[in-house]
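User: Run a structure prediction on this.
Assistant: Running it now.
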Amino acid sequence: MNKTEAKRRAKELVAKMTVEERMTQLLYNSPAIERLGIKEYNWWNEAAHGVARAGTATVFPHAIAMAATFNPETVKKIGEVISTEARAKYNKSVEFGDYDIFKGLTYWTPNINIFRDPRWGRGQETYGEDPFLTATLASSLIKGIQGDGEFLKASACSKHFAGHSGPEGMRHGFDAIISMKDLHETYLPAFEHTVKNGVTGVMGAYNRTNGEACCAHSYLLSKVLRKDWGFDGYVVSDCWAIADICGDHHIVETKAEAAALALKNTCDLNCGETYTALVDAYEEDLVTEEEITACCERLYTIRHLLGEFEEVRPYSDIPFKTVDCKEHREFNIKAAEECVVMMKNDGFLPLDKNISKRIAVVGPNALSVSALEGNYNGHASEYVTVADGIRRVFTEADIAVVKGSNYYKEKQLDHDGHGNLLSDGLAAASTADITVLALGLDFSVEGEEMSDFSDDFFMKGDRRYVNLPKTQIKLAEAVCDVCDNVIVVIMCGSAVDLGEKINKKARAILHAWYPGSQGGQAVANILSGKVSPSGRLPVTVYSADHAIPAFEDYSMKGRTYRFIEGEALYPFGFGLSYADFSYSNLKVIENSDAALSVSVDVTNNSDIRAEERAQLYAEYSDSRTSTPHFQLCGVCPLTLEAGETKTAVFDVDRYWLSAVLSDGSRVKPDGSIALYAGGHQPDAVSDRLSGYCCEKTELV
């Protein structure tokens, strides 16, 4: 069904409803209208990295881990698996008459807020700190979820529009003050690109941006989203965010006024209950029947595009046996392998899988399932932790597994006997030839607006610092004292500085993020050299003493690789491989006012097959405004056999080469433009860590 036909049929159906019935359909838990044959429908569903909160499903690497793949095709395939399992589960839910929450086909995914500050607990749900990478990967996931058939396979939703990247504890009443330049240069591009790539939903944010509540924002919703970008899909509030308009933002006094303000600014659907006050708003002439009808028609256009009202529902032949099936689990291992970033390797890795030495796996994430899952997750039918993966791969080794520490608590006495585990960890490490330190966090301490607890490290799910909690640093430093061969595997949702001692003494450091249910297998495969690591950092890793701007400051000055002041510890785009790649023959092969194509030859100079993540960056200047240090504008994943050369081709939209003025407008730079191609960004730290410089060409 094309959109025109869906709109026509939605208009016909909505016309048969009374105005009171239309109001009820603007709630996320839309009730049935039996006289019209309309079943109840619950719009609320999540699928950040697999069908979430609805029982068994494939649990893929979390969004920040997907970002580390730098691979749009892998992310698109993840979206395809998500919608396949979504349809399989939906088909059975309908068969058994289950229309409850998390059973529909409207997924409030992906989160495309910019991960501007490494302390933000929800950064794990995003695609990192770069607008281009976020726009590219989110568009790929959306295409995978929504499909390209006659009907939507499922509906995706870009969130949170706009200007939300923490702090979590303040979000319900916080006003993010953002200049028009920063708004249009950093915070809005991913939304613009996902809208223009066909996303069917957009979710507003909790906070205010420049004084207006995001779910009732005249500039962001009415002007930018609807008028400038031409978005004709549905807008949904974040959950209970419309209640914040009167309760926390104090913009209006009553729920009826809050509901009216949101509705008049084209927020179609309320996740919450404030739209029950639309009855009062209508009686008080705060909203019109026409405004209510327009919102209802947009919602029913989506439901028609999903095929809800077809005599034979689309995709009804997808069987339940596809859910977390063997094929999906095998692909999940591949996806997890791609997300692992090797930040350090002094030549110690890879390990021979046939070694008979003693390996100690030590740390709070050694046997952690929750650190595989991240948040906004489903529950897989099988989990492979780091310790499990190492046992499976290194079958000849003598393997010891101990916790060694909690995530952050350290007590000498504890009623459950697990308050202080340090000596246990040191005992295992001191008797081992190799120690794998499995450090990091999980969703019990890092995530969305969590309960506060007395600690000097966490605040409502956010972190106060970029290093790990003192308990883990104490364990890691002590392990480095008693074992010469230490490999660190970090599993958490953000950048981490391990500190000078660990950074120096560890033989290798891997960041695995929240790698999904098969993450431990992927880590072990990389440790053994079965696959070469190809992940790249989607965020900047700052040193603990780096002067990061205040969390509440939404200016981009001093933030991310694009505007950093000083040097990164490990830069955005960086990641090591077991192979040695070289780049040559960078050239512009097509050039127009709208776009250009750029090619570069990439050679695998090693004797192993390996994947590379070729990246293209632009450096440009403009006399009228400041510009980023560098701007990622192309990614090209390659698989190269030993000794093979392939040509990477980047198709670049000049949007990403434009300068942004103080009023938010994009213009062609009046200065020079240089292009750089390589396996990392062209900064001095990346050059030093990787051992080579990017290829450069001037754009005429």
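The chain has a mean pLDDT of 97.
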